[in-house]
Design goal:
Elements lengths: L7 H11 L2 H9 L1 H17 L11 E8 L4 E10 L2 E12 L5 E6 L18 H11 L10 E3 L7 E3 L9 E10 L2 E11 L6 E7 L5 E6 L1 E3 L1 H10 L12 H10 L12 E4 L13 E4 L43 E5 L25 E2 L12 H24 L24 E5 L8 E4 L7 E5 L1 E2 L6 E6 L5 E4 L1 E2 L13 E7 L20 H4 L3 E5 L11 H10 L4 E5 L22 E4 L1 H10 L6 E6 L4 E2 L4 H16 L19 H12 L57 H23 L11 H15 L6 H16 L4 H10 L11 E2 L2 E2 L18 E3 L5 E4 L2 E3 L6 E5 L8 E7 L4 E8 L1 H6 L2 E4 L6 E9 L2 E9 L2
Parallel strand pairs: 12-15, 14-16, 16-18, 23-24, 24-25, 25-26
Antiparallel strand pairs: 1-2, 2-3, 3-4, 5-6, 6-7, 7-8, 8-9, 9-10, 11-17, 12-13, 17-18, 19-28, 20-21, 20-27, 22-26, 23-27, 29-30, 31-32, 33-34, 34-37, 35-36, 35-38, 38-39
Helix pairs in contact: 7-11, 11-12, 12-13, 13-14, 13-16, 14-15, 15-16
Length: 935
């Protein structure tokens, strides 16, 4: 259930204000906005086929002054016939003198000529009903208007029994190809918190046109990679506890001590999870006074009287909970609310008592729902959300730009949007998500429980032919196996639906031919095999078994030679029996034992779940979605990071970067392998593989992604997370080059250190980039940010890093479809712009790792790849010599394009162990690098 700490009157007011953004923005900013609009209009007409009518009277979604850069950011939407155009955005960024430093627009030329009438056929009420139907939600009940306004500004309905929030409905145009469609935009926050929809319904016909979701879920890969990977079990780290404690002491963000008043026991920044750091005591005084002047927790007494009054204060309960100005953290399995959404139960957050001592025992073996473990996880989640708030605010994600706070102390931006951080969210498993509506509405972080896959065991005791142990995955629907006292135990029978071609075992229909035999038994089912695609869903298959009287279900993978347990995704609240998935090999073995109506006996048990609230990298990743969503396109527009497959979606990449950044420790190096989600996945921290396809590393031998990884062909990145992985790779490369240039600072609030400079650059770039950017748009935004804040001091470095990954000056982004860049048509390029210095990118040891010349793996054994992004008018000549200059591998001639893209692979098996020099001769000169060869 939801934790909504706002009364209905405050919420109505917040929504009404949110719908009046243009007037509010202009009133706050005055002349700067007027000047910005005039400059935007002039430049847009001069540099594009737009007419004066196309850029007249744009809708100002937000405008604010950024004190960290001295820029005023003004974000716009095209307006035609008094209505905004949903996916036609623009922005103008001006300096203190009013000079335009950058502007962009994606307006539709000749819009008025292709705009239909502004008079809708559907009423707003009918639009809500149509949207609910298309979103597979119940029909709204007792729908009433709460806020009346012009349809162009928006009407607000009550929740209608289908939404967690009141329902805004607004008339607008939406661009579809080169035409405009009159639509009602209906915003519905699903009661199960799985989606927060903006659905666009044709205002003339009632047909569904489009939708987007404020909820960014990791289900596309977090769950899939966990379920499809063969992972080693977690092992203790070699690092000693004493060494880890010393690291924690050295960190400026966490301290080592004993349980004490005004403190929390947590895994401190920058440590990623309990596998690599002991839990230590962090005092509430760790809150940075510049960014959390009223503290992290409501009971600290730093805030003025009545600061947390009415809608948020829980002080009257006599408890001191994990609540504050930045975040409310709680156990989502225990949340209760009254009719208007106000918290009534105070038992779902740990109580630090009158001394604010949030020290709770944690023992993984006792299970995630152990009271001490629950409290410890929530406390850790509370601490990390507060740290993320303070660190990101220090780099420019502040109140006016849309950060997450109950009250904004500067009275800039909109408050009432703290993060609701839900620990052990009860709605699903093996996942995490973040919901980021526009500024003024709370962000929602949902952390889930994760299968302890290594400990999941199905034990078959009879018949002898099937006896043994089988690994399995649990389902994301139905009752949790961990809640059953003895697991899922009983007799097992293969189903016969009488329909599916594979002996009826695919559970494609009901009733079963052998329904009587299934009654009170565990049903064995094969994945797939149904003619109707809908019935191939795991939920449908298990539901059919349930309708035939089964007490549980085992679904085995359809690949008869596969050894990976079948994933079990899906949601269906009507499924009331537990289900597990096993591999194709194990399933066929079990099926053979059940031939001729035989019966097996078995029991499936799980190990203690992992609590996602302890995976600090994933927590940071989720918070990162709120950062990138609020900063791109301005805080009032949460529709500027399209998050669907097939597009150059970069949100997942920024979130991975934030996760890696927050967990970088002194002594780390860019060539190390870094993973995301090892704790949640039950994997060794240093081994992975985590939730991504490749580790993050500057070492091409470990991660060789280039821009050509994006595309629609087999093996190319098309899914949202896989695309984001490529973007995070180049950001991670750039982060390390900044560290090698400027050093590393363990003080994450400092402006010094390459890591801090890089994070500031990324946040500045988010503010400057276009709505729904592609990779090259993101690159250009970083270059502009560096020009504004550093006078382009790092431009050469940025270009070299991006060129190394195929995003150089001659790269092509690919076409936009309705304002969103797609992965199709991407062309990588490795050239530097004219006048850009070639920089020998280095690692922490000073060895060259890019652009001038790189050779990997180093040390090499049988194979060595030599690669450079240098240009050459003639084929490059590659040779290996020893330290005395004697040739040990003769010269090879290689086209420059091949050296830039894939490099040259050399056979070094005949070269003796030792240190050598790789020499590459180009029309630009001769370049060398040392390599070690070991056999």
């Amino acid at each position: 259930m939801a934790l909504i700490l706002t009364n209905s009157g405050y919420r109505k007011l917040a929504l009404a204000i949110a719908l009046a953004v243009p007037g509010l923005a202009v009133a706050q900013q005055g002349t700067p906005v007027t000047e910005a609009l005039a400059s935007f209009s002039a430049k847009a007409q001069r540099q594009s086929p737009l007419s004066a009518a196309d850029v007249a009277n744009p809708y100002v979604t937000s405008s604010y002054f950024d004190p960290s850069t001295g820029l005023t950011h003004t974000y716009l939407q095209q307006r035609v016939n008094g209505l905004t155009v949903f996916n036609a955005n623009g922005a103008v960024h001006t300096d203190r003198s009013g000079k335009v430093v950058f502007f962009n627009q994606d307006f539709l030329p000749g819009a008025a000529a292709v705009a239909p009438s502004t008079t809708p056929t559907l009423t707003p009420e009918q639009a809500v009903v149509a949207a609910a139907k298309r979103l597979d939600l119940p029909r709204p009940v007792s729908l009433q208007r709460l806020v009346e306004a012009r349809v162009a500004d928006g009407i607000v309905f009550n929740k209608g029994g289908i939404s967690e929030e009141n329902i805004p409905v607004r008339l607008m145009y939406m661009r579809v190809d080169n035409k405009l469609v009159l639509v009602w935009n209906v915003t519905i926050a699903q009661l199960d918190q799985q989606h927060y929809w903006n659905a666009r319904i044709d205002a003339q016909t009632g047909r569904f046109v489009d939708r987007n979701d404020y909820v960014v879920s990791e289900r596309a890969t977090f769950q899939q990679h966990v379920l499809e990977s063969k992972k080693p079990s977690r092992q203790p780290m070699a690092t000693t506890v004493a060494a880890l404690a010393a690291d924690a002491k050295r960190s400026t963000l966490g301290t080592k001590g004993t349980a004490a008043a005004n403190s929390m026991t947590v895994i401190p920044v920058p440590f990623e999870n309990p596998d690599i750091s002991p839990r230590v005591v962090v005092p509430f005084s760790s809150a940075n006074p510049l960014y959390s002047p009223y503290g992290w927790q409501v009971g600290e007494g730093k805030a003025p009287a009545n600061f947390f009054a009415d809608t948020y204060s829980l002080l009257s309960s006599g408890k001191q909970l994990t609540r504050g100005n930045n975040v409310a953290a709680y156990d989502d399995n225990a949340t209760t609310t009254n009719g208007n959404g106000t918290l009534t139960s105070t038992t779902n957050s740990p109580d630090g008592g009158p001394t604010l001592n949030f020290d709770f025992p944690f023992n993984q073996r006792l299970g995630a729902r152990n009271p001490g473990n629950v409290a410890a996880g929530i406390t850790n989640l509370f601490y990390w959300n507060n740290m993320l708030h303070d660190v990101m605010m220090s780099k420019g994600f502040d109140e006016v730009s849309g950060n997450f706070q109950y009250k904004n102390i500067t009275n800039l931006g909109r408050g009432n949007d703290f993060v609701r951080a839900e620990s052990q969210d009860g709605s699903r498993r093996n996942n995490a998500s973040f919901t980021s509506p526009p500024d003024g509405t709370p962000g929602l972080m949902q952390m889930y429980l994760w299968d302890n896959e290594a400990a999941n065991t199905l034990t078959i005791t009879a018949p002898t032919s099937a006896a043994g142990t089988y690994k399995f995955n649990t389902a994301s629907f139905g009752p949790l196996l961990s809640t059953l006292p003895n697991g899922l135990c009983g007799d097992i029978v293969a189903v016969n639906d009488g329909v599916s071609a594979d002996g009826g075992i695919s559970s494609c229909a009901t009733p079963y031919v052998n329904a009587a035999a299934i009654q009170g038994k565990i049903a064995l089912i094969r994945r797939g095999g149904c003619n109707a695609p809908a019935t191939n869903n795991f939920t449908d298959k298990v539901k059919f078994a349930q309708l035939n009287g089964a007490i549980g279900a085992i679904v085995y993978d359809s690949n008869p030679t596969g050894t990976t347990p079948s994933p079990m995704g899906g949601t269906d609240a009507t499924v009331t029996i537990p289900a597990i998935g096993i591999s194709g090999v194990d399933g066929e073995r079990l099926r053979a034992a059940l031939a001729n109506n035989a019966v097996a006996t078995g029991c499936a048990t799980t190990g203690p779940d992992f609590d996602g609230s302890f995976d600090n990298g994933v927590v940071s990743h989720e918070y990162g979605h709120g950062i990138s969503t609020r900063l791109t396109g301005g805080p009032a527009n949460s529709n500027c990071l399209e998050n669907s497959d097939g597009n150059q979606t970069m949100g997942e990449g920024w979130s991975d970067f934030f996760a890696l950044w927050m967990t970088t420790r002194p002594g780390d190096g860019g060539g190390n392998s870094r993973y995301v989600g090892t704790y949640d996945g039950g994997e060794p921290y240093a081994v992975g593989p985590g939730f991504r396809n490749k580790p993050y590393s500057t070492d091409f031998a470990k991660n060789d992604y280039t821009y050509s990884q994006l595309g629609t062909a087999a093996g190319q990145a098309q899914r949202t997370h896989d695309v984001g992985e490529v973007w995070a790779t180049v950001l991670w490369d750039l982060n390390w080059q900044f560290i090698y240039k400027y050093g590393y600072s363990a003080d994450f609030f400092s402006a010094n250190g390459g890591n801090n400079k890089m994070l500031k650059l990324v946040l500045d770039g988010l503010k400057l980039q276009v709505c729904n950017p592609g990779f090259l748009d993101g690159r250009d935004a970083l270059l502009r940010a560096d020009t504004v804040t550093n006078r382009a001091a790092n431009a050469d470095l940025i270009w070299n890093v991006f060129a190394r990954r195929g995003m150089g000056a001659n790269a092509v982004q690919g076409p936009r479809v309705n304002g969103v860049p797609t992965v199709g048509g991407v062309v990588q390029g490795f050239n530097l712009p004219l006048g850009t210095r070639v920089i020998a990118l280095s690692n922490k040891n000073g060895n060259v790792v890019g652009n001038a010349l790189e050779a990997y793996p180093n040390p090499a054994q049988e194979k060595l790849t030599v690669r450079t992004q240098l240009n050459s008018a003639v084929p490059m000549q590659v040779i290996i010599v020893d330290l005395l200059g004697k040739t040990v591998l003769r010269s090879v001639s290689v086209p420059a394009a091949r050296m830039q893209q894939n490099g040259l692979e050399l056979n070094t098996s005949s070269i003796a162990t030792g240190v050598y020099v790789v020499r590459v001769t180009t029309s630009e000169g001769t370049f060398t690098t040392k390599v070690s060869i070991q056999h």
